[in-house]
Amino acid sequence: MTDLYRFLPEEMEQLVIDMGYPRYRADQILLHLYYKFPKNISDIKQLPKQLINDLIESGYTIGSAKETHRIVSEDGDTTKLLLSLTNDKSVETVLMQYEPSKIGGHQRSTICVSTQIGCAMGCTFCATGQMGFETNLKAEHIISQVLHFAELLQQRGQHVTNLVFMGMGEPMANYDEMIRAVKVLTHPRGFGLGQRHITISTIGIKSGIEKLAEENLQIGLAISLHAPNNELRKKLVPTATFNSVEEIIESGYNYFKKTGRRVTFEYALMSGINDSPEIARDLAKLLHGNGSHVNLIPINPTAGDFTRPSNNRVHEFERILSSSGVNCTIRIEKGTEISAACGQLRTDVIGQFTKKIS
Ligand code: SAH
Ligand code: SF4
Fold first, then answer.
1. Ligand 2 contact via 169 beta carbon (within 6 Å)
2. Does domain 2-61 have CATH number 1.10.10.10?
3. Which class is 66-352 in CATH?
4. Exposed, middle or buried, 254 (CB in 10 Å: 0-12/13-18/19+)?
5. Can you name the residues that pair with 83 across neighbouring β-strands?
6. Domain ranges in the chain?
7. Is the CB of 240 under 6 A from ligand 2?
8. Which residue has a Cα nearest atom 14 of ligand 1?
């Protein structure tokens, strides 16, 4: 069985041509896939019956995610879904909506997708990391998370405006499927999302960052740094020791030079661990002058024995970075009360889902 959602437009053309049909049949399929969200190949009514049969008989399918649970935050801005994928795995995907009054401009609807079930990186503060690694998701599984929300938004007269790879898993550890999903989702004849509206978050796998820089895409890159030195970072990201802090920062800088896109360094602040003024000064020295941006994320205590620093401490950390000339913001996490903030998705919250189902 091969899911038609895996196919790039050029591949879809080749597929119909190889089956003996004219090229334009590919466009009819693509238009349906990305605007009408069909659940079966036979739903694509414009296609000749024979092509539908040929596709089905050759083992092609259209996979879609099935929503099994939903929780909505009290302010209604964050929706977390538990989706059952065609690989029979359950994955959490989140929609975060930002009202124009809060951000200026137009309403933003950001989808946070997962690329793996679990994660092998084992970050000590991350709920996904503590689950261990289960499996890589295929491109179609990543795409179906986005399309499920796209259909939901379409029914409300809205659309997906942004996409972040900040759900479960390490995108660079599933590079080929992740990048295929990005290419389908950004292709003007695919889902057509602007490249600049996508951010990939990585724990800092240098080889993956280098590959991404060569893709000739305008994708945003976020690198989860969390510490300015290797000793401390090893305690927080035990398996990421194959790339040093210096190497990670250098590959971020190279990404910036190659793509012109400013790189964001994410820094989860944990009380008494990585939030001292001395550490802030070390971080400032490390990042000063390389055009990067730091996003401070007061930790959500979902795994391990970590607590969030006081607001004063967070602001002091921010002041030290800003006054050293390092561009810095504090991330206001959305949906924290429903554990929907990025990086804390996990599949073993069925209890929570059934308690809070909307
Ligand atoms: N594996 C990738 C992407 C998924 S995690 C990465 O690590 O970047 C997305 C973001 O959520 C990362 O910046 C991660 O550090 C952060 N995160 C993980 N657990 C968190 C927690 N408990 N509180 C706040 N941020 C967390
Ligand atoms: Fe994996 Fe990212 Fe969680 Fe680390 S923070 S365990 S890399 S998902």
1. yes
2. no
3. alpha beta
4. middle
5. 67, 91
6. 2-61, 66-352
7. no
8. 343
